[in-house]
Design brief:
homodimer; alpha+beta; Arc Repressor Mutant, subunit A; three-stranded antiparallel β-sheet; DNA-binding
Chain lengths: 108, 108
DNA sequence: CTCTTTATTGGCAATTTAACCAACTGATTT
DNA sequence: AAATCAGTTGGTTAAATTGCCAATAAAGAG
């Protein structure tokens, strides 16, 4: 008698699953997008605020925001002429501590 | 009397700093490299073990390992004919929980 | 309604990334 | 010493990324 349910792993470790994870990391892995996430950790901001912060063309910033949005890191909210973005999953911020420690180690 | 020391920020938020951080994230943001990091969380492994795991050419895996090494995520150790890699900064593993929660949110 | 402001989208050029194969290095085996 | 095994490095090609400009859309102001 086959026991099919025994073969379902608790945690997926398939290639597809690692691709999903890396997509999220890739969305964060750009200096401008990190600046944006850092800024959004202080509250929601409109695209024009973020454009000034990042110092690139507004179309470039809009595309960066779309990358973050597609990967579930931010959500947007149009109010009037402006579009406001905010963090969707705050735990993203925990990354920074670890990344700092990696960088500190690299300096040694 | 100028108070120069007052202008030194506690935490750097310059573009250069965000570039450093994104370099670390970028090193992690690839499915094969995530597979490697996940495997190394169980202990050190030689390149040939990781090559079998990843399922790509050994030269490709070697280059992935070099990316992780250059960014301070793993360290290597040659013993005999084999080169063993292990995680340098274990906190990297904390990322996974958060990434999972992002992915879970994305499914909703 | 027209003009302006805010943001998104399409398209293009330059750069980067990632895979493979081939060549090479270094250590072990025979 | 010669052959073999484990890994790294160089070179090439295909694909993805990122920036800007131009065109478009949507909302508000005059």
């Amino acid at each position: 008698m086959p026991q099919l349910h025994r073969y379902i792993p608790e945690r997926s470790t398939t290639r597809a699953h690692f691709e999903e994870r890396s997509a999220v990391l890739k969305a964060l892995a750009h200096p401008s997008r990190l600046m944006i996430v850092d800024e959004l950790s202080h509250g929601e901001r409109c695209v024009c605020d973020l454009t000034e912060l990042v110092g690139h063309d507004i179309s470039t910033v809009s595309k960066h925001l779309n990358v973050l949005k597609k990967n579930g890191i931010v959500v947007d909210d149009k109010r009037g002429k402006q579009v406001y973005y905010r963090l969707k999953v705050p735990c993203i911020l925990n990354f920074f501590h670890c990344i700092e420690s990696v960088i500190d180690e690299n300096r040694k």
